[in-house]
Amino acid sequence: MTDLPRSTERKLGLVIDLDTCVGCHACVISCKGWNTVSADNAPLSDFDAYGPDPQGTFLNRVHSYEVTPEEGGAAQVVHFPRSCLHCEDAPCVTVCPTGASFKRAEDGIVLVNEDDCMGCGLCAWACPYGARELDLAAGVMKKCTLCIDRIYNENLPEEDRVPACVRSCPAGARHFGDLGDPDSAVSRLVAERGGMELMPECGTRPVNRYLPPRPRDRAVKGSLENAAEDSARPSGFLGWLDRALEAL
Amino acid sequence: MHPAVSVILFTTLSGAGFGLFAWLGTGRPPVTGWPAFWFYFMGYGLAVTGLFASAFHLANPKNAIKAFSQWRSSWLSREAVLSVATLLVIAPYAIGRIFYGENWAALGLAGSILSILTVFSTAMIYTQLRTVPRWNTPLTPLLFLAYAVTGGAILAGQSEAAIWLLLALGLIQLAHWMLGDSRFAAAGHDMGTATGLGRIGRVRLLEPPHSGGNYLLHEMVFRIGRRHAMKLRVLAFLGAVALPLAILLAFGAAPAATALAAAVHLLGTLASRWLFFAEARHVVGLYYGR
């Protein structure tokens, strides 16, 4: 049955640092690469990849936003990777009619059993985060597996036993660990930096957390405006030059 | 949301079919023999066509049989189980009516109740989604039930009941449209909560993650319907409510009038159902600045 486990032994997930992410999309590509060639699951397909209308299935996408403080001041750019948050109260699991969607009791990872999926798409409708994409070639639902075939894979060197997106991030903006253990490195990061849930009003209780950008230096009052147009009259030699040029 | 033809046909036709069964199961109209055959033929035609249409929505239909397994947790699975149960319970009742002129009332009543539960579970597939605030309201099952029972009343030739039901349907439909318009904002979703960046300031999409389309945009960020929404609402209301009401009031239970009212009502229902999907806004659009 696609009931949710009452609790999970561990809560494996990602902590994504929005202060550090440089928006390079390396995580997007490494995710696509690993999940296309490695697993028992169907590959992540592409259509018209080099043509005028390229489309494909991805488990991770990076948006870039501009945030402008309400009280005025300089805007900033925030790169924002979006993938499955492995929610504790995952609505994608309970809506599934075939039992293909499930959340593991041992580590909290939300997965799709492709042998059971009928491709109705209802789980993608139920997800607020756009974490699930139906693969148009395979006809089954695709989602982040937290690289379940890497993190427990003893054939890989130990440093590679993390999700592909975490391993490939050149900025160190992605962290993997047990968010159910308050002493884990990821939990301490969340506590120190005020890690946040996305769309908490949806009641999904996501496991993944996002670390907000650190506060930027505020533009010194008036400095930006002065740089744009210097309205104050200078004095001294510059003042004489200003008046002389105006008189010409 | 993308208004897929398969899903519109599924909810409209199976809704009307099960709505008709809800009336037939209570012995209305009290027909036997050939007339009964044609009523049940129509009911099975609508319900089964609708259910087949829903299968066309599946990307991997070979696993469709597994949809009967998760009835404990999934409304879609409950809908599958209940619809087949209804068809199986109504069948012997129909045989009694058609071939033996008998009214096995308990069986018929069970079929009626199952029909209503089937339509309710269809509606709950949409109602349960907190990601689509316009649907996530008790008015949605009320709307689906009102459409089913009203359409069923017209098809079953229950003109007097149909007139009252059309009036009720009109009110519920208007309420669903008007209250639905403010549901998204009232739920408190915006780009600030979607990204968590609202605590810093105003959020604007600077660069989308991909230049082409994708499944999410095609399926959940459909926007065409919203431009003509007002015109379509008028057309849907005329077809589903106003015209059938006028026809029934003018001509009563004459068979030709009933047939015309039913046809117009079903067309109006299709338009309303198209709007139900096309106007619905999914929160994932926020990540794309829509």
TrEMBL record, chain A:
Occurrences of domain 4Fe-4S ferredoxin-type (ranges): 12-42, 75-106, 108-137
Signal peptide: none
Pfam families registered for this protein in UniProt: Fer4_11 (PF13247)
PROSITE patterns per record: 4FE4S_FER_1, 4FE4S_FER_2
CDD domains: PsrB
InterPro entries: 4Fe4S_Fe-S-bd, 4Fe4S_Fe_S_CS, ET_IronSulfur_Cluster-Binding
GO-annotated molecular function: 4 iron, 4 sulfur cluster binding; metal ion binding
Keywords: 4Fe-4S, Iron, Iron-sulfur, Metal-binding
Record's protein name: Fe-S-cluster-containing dehydrogenase component
UniProtKB/TrEMBL annotation, chain B:
InterPro entries cross-referenced by the UniProt entry: DmsC (IPR007059)
One GO MF term attached to the UniProt entry: dimethyl sulfoxide reductase activity
Ranges annotated as spanning the membrane: 7-25, 37-59, 80-100, 106-127, 139-156, 162-179, 232-251, 257-276
Protein name in the entry: DMSO reductase anchor subunit
PANTHER family associated with the record: ANAEROBIC DIMETHYL SULFOXIDE REDUCTASE CHAIN YNFH
Listed Pfam families: DmsC (PF04976)
GO terms under biological process: anaerobic electron transport chain
Keyword Transmembrane among record annotations: yes
Record key words, sorted: Membrane, Transmembrane, Transmembrane helix
GO cellular component, one term: dimethyl sulfoxide reductase complex
